[in-house]
Amino acid sequence: MDEVKVRFAELLRGKGLELTEAHWEQYETYFQELVSWNEKMNLTGITEREQVYIKHFYDSLSLSFYVPMREVATLADIGSGAGFPSLPLKIMFPHLQVTIVDSLNKRIQFLNHLVSKLGLEHVRCIHGRAEDEARKPMLRDAFDLATARAVARLNALNELCLPFVKPGGLFAAMKGSNPEEELKEAAFSLQTLRGEVEAVERFELPVEQSSRHILLIRKTGNTPKAYPRKAGVPLKQPLMK
Ligand code: SAM
Hints:
The structure is a single chain. 40% of the residues are buried. This protein has a single domain (3-225), classed as Vaccinia Virus protein VP39 (Rossmann fold, 3-Layer(aba) Sandwich). The chain is 39% helix and 23% strand. With 241 residues, the chain is an alpha/beta fold. The protein is globular and about 55 Å long. The chain has a seven-stranded mixed beta sheet, with helices on both faces. Helix 1 runs parallel beside helix 3 and helix 2 (21-38) runs antiparallel to helix 6 (105-118). The mean pLDDT is 97. S-adenosylmethionine is lined by residues 78-82, 84, 101-104, 107, 129-131, 149-151, 160.
């Protein structure tokens, strides 16, 4: 009996998600590749099997508890690192057309290898800065859903992510325990980049019971021409009044 498998399946069932054998094989391959490549490059500080399943896979899937994934066709994952949250979501929701943008080429190499090993279709991994990529007509104001986990504070993150979202689409920022301060300091950047907070969802990560938040931000119009600013500027000088 594989306890990690039983526990993971139970947790997902509690959220209405059925873990099939095919999903399980893909998650296991993901885990093995992650740990093996992590010996050669820095992908994650979390390598213990159950921890990877909870803190990376389940945490990534938590986005689907609050966003109806079956209504989402195109997903942009900004600063995806080792593929979080988009690749665990892609395994569970194979219809998603995923675009990953990350500025570190080594991580993109890992992701390209992983995507082919998992046999995933309609996943493109772009090596670049979000600020530059969001200027490309194919990617600008184009996605149903953009997301990011552990990339930057919200006032800067808005400028990295909202430009990818089409008017009417969603930006879902995956945050840790206390987003209130970040939300306050992000009011001006939200307004400037045509974002409106629609909901703040809170949940507990199983096992360690640490709290997580998902900020759901609706895009209300096209991105103003001046944004995003040059690469590096959003992080150095976040939009503030
Ligand atoms: N989202 C992943 C996770 O939750 O495990 C990775 C988080 S890691 C701390 C942040 C990632 O964002 C890194 O892989 C880094 O290369 C990427 N990143 C930082 N600034 C970026 C930018 N301006 N454009 C694209 N990627 C960026």
